Amino acid sequence: MAGGALTGVEVASGGDPHRTGLTADALALLARLERETRDRRGALLRRRLERQATFAAGMLPTFPAATQRLRDGVFRVATKPPAVPAIAPSAVHFARRLRDSAAFEPRVVVDGRPVSAALFDLVAAVAASGANDRRSPVLVRLPAQESHLEARLWSEVLRTVRDERALPAGALAAVIAVETLPALFELDEMVWELSPFAVALELDRAELTRSTLEKLGDDPNRVAPDLAALLELHPAAVATLRHVATVARRRGLAAWLAPTLPAPDLTALTDPLHGEAAARAAARLCDELAAAAAAGFDAAQLADPTHLELAERRFVALRVAAASLDEAVAAAPAANAALAEELLLPAPGLRTAAGLAAAIAALLAGDAVAPGGASFRAAGQLETAASTALHRTLLTQWLRHSAPLAEGGAVTPERVHAELAAQATTPLLQSAAERLAERLALPA
């Protein structure tokens, strides 16, 4: 395209902006956001890499000393949390999810480079709302962030969109996804930066677990146990729930719990082979929902609608009344201290041959049965793209450290090759095993 605000903007599919779902005006706004934020986004992503190098060197995340006064202070967000059901399947999205900050949208190119996928999603969400007469606020779930500096940039982006589209106050609101280890230690600061727009904190324990493995996984003293043990309601999980709920209550936001995965496959409860695994997963889900209810979470999302009865029994029945502001302020120091003390301890539990086999089974099934991210049932549990990513991260860490198993032996390339061969009982699974071996960089 050439001329006017769209100079330097190229659109795939023959150059028709409507093939992207965006009008020319929306494309112009997207191009402006891309140009104004491109350098800062790159710098923030580089900062992530620099920070990761400090973790690899043995440093642990901490609450920043420079922002202690902000954490101790009392401030509230300017927006009102939206009314959402206390329990809803994950298919009922509370907010429009924006893609990862590092991802790109190939359909739109600005000045020779594809635009940010997250910015594209934001502009598309606002454009769609405008087409629907703006009868309800545009609610977006921001991509995972790792610092208040990233939150500051998102606040500026949202302000630009609001002003450019002349949206009234409250017409554009944001959910802060809590799914990275560094973010837990800068939640108050992130809320402060996003206070004109933030309405909720959404905790995703599965993604947070994966982030913790990635951030601290180079430490041989922090090799994780089986995934089933890793996702149990151990003290670090309880501390995380309380910390997120306390920050939300102090700052005037809602606290939402994203689906915990792998989740139970309730249809497998009577299965003689997988019934025990399904029962354990169901018990874990109930424990987590009960802890979230006790901590003061406002809503929980389910991995599957069949879990509704479990959720009503544990979350809805046990949900406590919202803490007052004074109560939340009083609870904050203890919640922060518990987080700092518990979260950074090595995760309890054992690594077992059964856990190794379960991780490989989930990864093979995900590749062979549900390519493209569709959910599937395997070994008594409901798996999705998010849970298979967690399995893969865990297996990668085990291989990196030749992690010892409780029964003897270790997780070595030879051991994984043997397990792959044992499970690849069909041509489809054999192909999946070959692809998995390649992804894990296993020697032939």
Structural notes for this entry:
The chain is of the alpha/beta class and about 450 residues long. It has 2 domains: about 20-340, Malate synthase, domain 3 (TIM Barrel, Alpha-Beta Barrel), CATH 3.20.20.360; about 355-440, no CATH class. It has helices at about 25-55, 70, 115-130, 150-165, 180-185, 185-195, 205-215, 225-230, 235-250, 275-295, 310-320, 325-340, 355-370, 385-400, 415-425, 425-440, and strands spanning about 10, 85-90, 95, 105-110, 115, 140, 170-180, 200-205, 255, 265, 300, 375-380, 380-385. A 7-stranded parallel β-sheet has the order 2-11-9-8-7-6-3. Strands 1-4-5 form a 3-stranded antiparallel β-sheet. Strands 10-13-12 form a 3-stranded antiparallel β-sheet. Helix 1 (about 25-55) runs antiparallel to helix 3 and helix 13 (about 355-370) packs across helix 15. The longest helix has about 35 residues, at about 25-55. It is globular. The N and C termini lie far apart (about 50 Å). The model has no long low-confidence stretch (mean pLDDT about 90).
What is the structural class?
alpha/beta
Tell me the Rg in angstroms: 23 Å
- Portion of residues in beta strands equals 5-15%
Tally of alpha and pi helices: 16
Oligomer: single chain
Main β-sheet description? 7 strands, parallel
What descriptive keywords fit this protein?
444 residues; alpha/beta; seven-stranded parallel sheet; 16 helices
Topology:
Layout lengths: L8 E3 L12 H33 L11 H5 L14 E3 L6 E2 L6 E7 L2 E4 H15 L6 E4 L6 H17 L7 E7 L2 H4 L2 H7 L4 E6 L1 H12 L10 H4 L4 H17 L2 E4 L5 E2 L10 H21 L3 E4 L5 H11 L6 H18 L10 H16 L7 E3 L2 E3 L1 H17 L11 H11 L3 H13 L5
Parallel strand pairs: 2-11, 3-6, 6-7, 7-8, 8-9, 9-11
Antiparallel strand pairs: 1-4, 4-5, 10-13, 12-13
Helix pairs in contact: 1-3, 1-4, 4-6, 7-14, 9-12, 10-11, 13-14, 13-15, 13-16, 15-16
